[in-house]
């Protein structure tokens, strides 16, 4: 067995080796003082086995590849900072001379408001919504392909160095968990036997996803109601920063829900997989990973997808708003778009998950469990001397059980999704991921060396189903970023205005072009503002962000021809962007060989040597057979001599020896 050297842990010398290996790993790998150094992957593989070694090798490659992505992301962000004062649309919004009165953001409680009050949001949105983000989205799509290719080459090199080229994973048949004493005979489960478990899995997965959607909808209702409550509030502090308060508190609620549901979904996915009784360990692991990934991915990304693609689209218009659950009016985006809110949600979710899950779940909870295990073992001060003389493997019993590396992979895959899927709205995501991973590598190293029992070493030649998930995410990221740029950001409306509607081919007049007119006498009964007079004059016309006909046209409030022109350009952009980036990605994939050239040459040389050795052995066998044949023909047996069998037996032995 490949892991026999790690299984036989009974002897004192082996325990001394384990202890020495752990000390060496701590000094060269788990210490924070060596964060800038490469990981000792060979040593990790020798101590923990190939499966754990491959995870840390993959994490190292991923972290290394995040460095150029983080640098470009920071440059894009700095470009937004440098050009914010030259951005004409935000300058027009911040210009008090325009004196644009906007329609209320909610019914009755909200009043009319001046567009100039959205100045801060408009300037902040430009940091993330500028032409450089389009370039960055293309760059990140190609970056994902380069990362996958780099990992394939690194994996091939490790396979060669670790002598795994001819290794085929043997699937161990998994014993179904039985209750009671029914362990005498093995029962072969048919498809009919497995059908109830499969149906249960499908129904439960659908139910859990529905729960996620329901919670996100609940947070939407919270945002709507708290916004109305803050507008009614008599406290000046509460009314001063309504948008920021609502955005931040809603994002924090989403984060808390995501972290709690992550733990629940992991337990449910394991229970459902056990219920299905997979035939092999590999099948069990893959099914468990797939279920957990689906649930955690939906849980983490549903609030983000809502902000990116649905918020502000299902609103209606003044006088004909869309309502849900009775009198709750659907949310609108800020004038600068929903990209800023999407950025805040991504930032809080990403940083919160990393800080809380890393610090609380990966450091705090294991230490708490370790403390509880020591309490349960009832080691008194009198027994401490006995504990000190225990052997290494006996002391290791106080450490936490090894739960596998799938949770570590899952955490990184969700992070990879955050980095690639919505990078158009948050160019600093790769930087945050890089800083987290530098800490994560040493944190995981310390956990594996000091907090967990040494796992049984397992061979593996690749990272398995995780590679397919990464590849799928990198493909989906191209489509998602195309839709974010086209529909969530103002990139396409700005482009269409500049080249189709602007009188001087500049962005002057863009803000006015995006605002439609509404006659306040057309409000539905009971929806007009209760306090409309705080602006010191009577409002007759208010503005709202949409492309609709004015109230004095022959078709008042219908979608204008500008809306359809912009929609056509948006769809065309999605198709062109997706196909161009996919084509470039496939070209990069084709250009870079999967096997490094030096490894390929070495494998080729070894094959030639193997063929030459085989030919020499065949030639030797033929010569031996020919010699034996000559001896037999030259020997003349007599009638009373019983020794003719001796040369024959000798030739057979000689032939076997040469073989």
From TrEMBL:
Compositionally skewed regions (Low complexity) per UniProt: 637-646
Polar residues composition-biased segments: 627-636
Annotated GO CC locations: plasma membrane
Keyword Nucleotide-binding: no
Protein name according to UniProt: Anoctamin
Transmembrane segments: 55-79, 132-148, 198-224, 244-268, 288-309, 412-435
Organism of provenance: Nothobranchius furzeri (Turquoise killifish)
Pfam families with a match to the protein in the record: Anoctamin
Residue stretches making up the Anoctamin transmembrane domain: 44-606
Topological category with respect to the lipid bilayer: Multi-pass membrane protein
Taxonomic placement: Eukaryota, Metazoa, Chordata, Craniata, Vertebrata
Residues covered by region (Disordered): 626-659
InterPro entries for the chain: Anoctamin, Anoctamin_TM
Gene from which this protein is expressed: ANO1
Family designation: Belongs to the anoctamin family.
Chief location of this protein within or outside the cell: membrane
Location of the protein in the cell: Membrane
Entry annotated with the keyword Transmembrane helix: yes
Keywords: Membrane, Transmembrane, Transmembrane helix
Signal peptide span: none
GO molecular function: intracellularly calcium-gated chloride channel activity
């Amino acid at each position: 067995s490949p892991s026999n050297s790690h299984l036989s842990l009974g002897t004192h010398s082996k325990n001394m080796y384990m202890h020495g290996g752990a000390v060496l790993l701590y000094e060269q790998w788990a210490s924070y003082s060596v964060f800038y150094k490469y990981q000792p992957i060979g040593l990790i593989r020798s101590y923990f086995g190939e499966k754990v070694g491959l995870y840390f090798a993959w994490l190292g490659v991923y972290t290394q590849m995040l460095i150029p992505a983080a640098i470009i992301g920071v440059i894009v962000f700095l470009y937004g900072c440098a050009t914010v004062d030259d951005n004409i649309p935000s300058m027009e919004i911040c210009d008090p001379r325009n004196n644009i009165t906007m329609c209320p953001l909610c019914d009755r409680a909200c009043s009319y408001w001046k567009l100039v009050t959205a100045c801060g949001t408009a300037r902040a949105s430009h940091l993330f919504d500028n032409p450089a983000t389009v370039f960055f989205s293309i760059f990140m799509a190609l970056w994902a392909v380069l990362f996958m290719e780099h990992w394939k080459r690194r994996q091939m090199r490790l396979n060669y160095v670790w002598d795994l080229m001819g290794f085929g994973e043997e699937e161990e048949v998994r014993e179904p968990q039985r209750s009671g004493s029914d362990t005498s005979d093995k029962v072969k489960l048919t498809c009919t036997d497995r059908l109830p478990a499969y149906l249960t899995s499908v129904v439960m997965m659908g139910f859990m996803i529905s729960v996620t959607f329901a919670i996100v909808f609940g947070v939407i209702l919270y945002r709507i109601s708290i916004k109305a409550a803050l507008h009614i509030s008599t406290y000046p502090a509460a009314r001063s920063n309504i948008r920021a308060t609502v955005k931040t508190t809603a994002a924090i609620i989403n984060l808390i829900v995501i972290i709690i549901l992550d733990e629940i979904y992991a337990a449910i996915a394991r229970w459902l997989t056990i219920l299905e009784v997979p035939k092999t360990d590999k099948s069990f692991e893959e099914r468990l990973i797939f279920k957990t990934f689906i649930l955690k991915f939906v849980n983490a990304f549903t609030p983000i997808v809502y902000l990116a693609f649905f918020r502000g689209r299902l609103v209606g218009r003044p006088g004909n708003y869309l309502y849900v659950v009775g009198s709750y009016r659907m949310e609108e985006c800020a004038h600068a778009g929903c990209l800023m809110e999407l950025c805040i949600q991504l930032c809080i979710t990403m940083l919160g998950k990393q800080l809380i899950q890393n610090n609380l779940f990966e450091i705090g909870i294991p230490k708490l469990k370790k403390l509880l295990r020591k309490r349960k073992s009832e080691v008194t001060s009198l027994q401490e001397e006995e504990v000190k003389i225990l052997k290494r493997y006996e002391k290791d019993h106080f450490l936490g059980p090894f739960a596998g590396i799938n949770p570590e992979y899952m955490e990184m895959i969700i992070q990879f999704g955050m980095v690639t899927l919505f990078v158009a709205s948050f160019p600093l995501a790769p930087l945050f991921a890089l800083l987290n991973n530098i800490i994560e590598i040493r944190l995981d190293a310390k956990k594996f060396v000091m907090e967990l029992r040494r796992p049984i070493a397992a061979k593996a030649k690749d990272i398995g189903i995780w590679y397919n998930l990464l590849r799928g995410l990198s493909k989906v990221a191209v489509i998602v970023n195309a839709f974010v740029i086209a529909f969530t950001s103002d990139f396409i409306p700005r482009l269409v205005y500049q080249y189709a509607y602007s009188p001087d081919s500049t962005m002057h007049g863009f803000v006015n072009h995006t605002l439609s007119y509404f006659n306040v006498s057309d409000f539905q009964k009971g929806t007009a503002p209760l306090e409309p007079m705080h602006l010191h004059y009577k409002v007759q016309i208010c503005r709202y962000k949409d492309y609709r006909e004015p109230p004095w046209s022959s078709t008042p409030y219908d979608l204008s021809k500008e809306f359809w022109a912009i929609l056509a350009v948006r769809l065309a952009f999605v198709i062109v962007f997706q196909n161009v980036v996919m084509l470039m990605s496939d070209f990069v994939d084709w250009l870079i060989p999967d096997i490094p050239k030096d490894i390929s040459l070495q494998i080729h040389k070894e094959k030639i040597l193997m063929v030459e050795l085989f030919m020499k052995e065949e030639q030797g066998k033929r010569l031996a057979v020919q010699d034996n044949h000559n001896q037999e023909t030259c020997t003349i047996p007599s009638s009373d001599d019983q020794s003719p069998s001796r040369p024959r037996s000798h030739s057979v032995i000689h032939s076997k020896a040469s073989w």
